[in-house]
Amino acid sequence: MEKIVDIIEAIAAEKGLEPEKVKEALKTAFKQTAKRVISDHFEYEVEINEETRAANIFQIITVVADDAPELQGELADAYISLTDAKELDEDVEIDDQLHQEHKLEDYGRTAAGQLHREIEFHIQRLVEDELYNKFKGKIGTIVSGRVTRVDHQQNTFIELDEIRAILPMKSRIKGEIFKPGEILKAVVRRVNVDKEVGMVIELSRTSPKFLEELLALEVPEINDETVIIEHSARIPGERAKIALYSTHPKVDPVGATVGVKGVRINAVSEELNGENIDCVEYTNVPELFISRAMSPAIISSVRILDTEEGEENKAVVVLPSDQKSKAIGRSGINIRLASMLTSYAIELEEQEGMSTSETGEIEEEREGIDSLEALFK
User: Fold this and answer.
1) Beta-sheet pairing, 314-320 with 301-304
2) What are phi and psi of 210, to 5 degrees?
3) Is pLDDT at 341 greater than 90 in this prediction?
4) What are 106-143's pLDDT values in tens digits?
């Protein structure tokens, strides 16, 4: 076929694909067409001549001994005897391969139609593979797109680069309602290929990763890794806790993330439908980290329990009775988030007869001791 190189360049430009990959896809299309039109018993090779800009199809013929059994039967055309082969090339040997050229034009409209369908199929597969690899690399990152529709099950469909992604209802923050035409941000949660519907991109707005990515967009110090998010925990639409630490001695991780008058954290909270976000400074001292994670409750002390290998980590938090309600939070939300953030199952133990002011002095002293201990770990 003539001008195949021009076709390759045109397809590559139109679809945004690499010319070399388009060339390989078209070679496969030619081979499959030859198998369907000529014979599927033989192997074919396709060469694209850059000078003539044409594609040439060759049937591969294997040289065998004159008395080889392959010369008899249904696949005899795929083989040639050594004697006959030497008439074509004196230097040929057994197991060498010769090429017999075929022209698809000689097979009429059937071949042309089949080739057209094969090219469409393989180019579409190539486009899908490129998109799959593109979005596979975006898992855990934020994308934005336009809402195209919301079905009767409240699944939201979003258009991303001519691909339709889905935000399931379970991955939508409670109370959110989206309408067609709105621009929506979400994090890529999963990319799958379904045999019936093709590529499926699943998005999420409830994942802790969505919170982390929003903070990276809003806080330059997180984006340039001056401030690191060590852990995060969310109860979507209600409250979240994030543990932060700074890689620079002059940067306060909590202050940088909150921003002046809370402008940065409030911008993220607004995107999350009003979700409250607590910022906690991370430390590798578990007692101190748990104490900070229990904020706004003021803690007297934390005791780490011994556990066997494979068991969940456990900690006992001792606090004044007047701090218990703060530690638990509404519907248990504060202690649940603290457990999720620290990866410790937390038990509360009331300490009678101690005031909040006395607890504050103990906490300040304990924090100083733990900070010094952390330097030597």
Assistant:
1) antiparallel
2) -65, -45
3) yes
4) 888 888 899 899 999 999 888 888 888 888 889 999 99
Using an 8 Å Cβ cutoff, are 43 and 58 in contact?
A: no
317: helix, coil or strand?
A: strand
Determine the pLDDT at residue 354: 53
* pTM attached to this predicted model: 0.72
- Strand order of the sheet with strand 345-351? 301-304, 314-320, 345-351
Give span(s): CATH 2.40.50.140, the chain: 144-203
Parallel/antiparallel/unpaired status of strands 44-49 and 97-102: unpaired
Q: Does the pLDDT at position 234 exceed 70?
A: yes
Number of C-beta neighbours around residue 337 at 10 A: 22
Q: Can you read off the two tokens belonging to residue 120?
A: 């469409």
Token output for 279: 């910022």
Q: Where in the chain is the domain with CATH 3.30.1480.10?
A: 4-135
Answer yes or no: is pLDDT of 375 > 80: no
Rounded to whole angstroms, the Cα distance separating 198 from 201 reads: 10
Question: At how many degrees (to 10) do helices 19-37 and 108-136 cross?
Answer: 140
Summary mean pLDDT of the chain: 87
The CATH number of 4-135 is: 3.30.1480.10
User: 207-282 belongs to which homologous superfamily?
Assistant: K homology (KH) domain (3.30.300.20)
Q: How far apart are CA 276 and CA 235, in angstroms?
A: 10
Residue 85, SS3 per DSSP: helix
Q: Where are the beta strands (DSSP E) in the chain?
A: 44-49, 54-64, 79-81, 97-102, 142-150, 156-160, 163-167, 183-194, 198-204, 227-235, 239-246, 276-281, 301-304, 314-320, 345-351
Sheet with 239-246, edge to edge strand ranges: 227-235, 239-246, 276-281
Q: Within 189-249, where are the H helices?
A: 208-218, 220-223
Token digits for 139?
A: 């898992």
Identify the DSSP state of 298. Answer: P
Could you name the CATH architecture of 285-377? 2-Layer Sandwich (3.30)
pLDDT digits (tens, 9 = 90+) for 57-98: 888 888 888 888 878 877 777 888 888 888 887 888 888 888
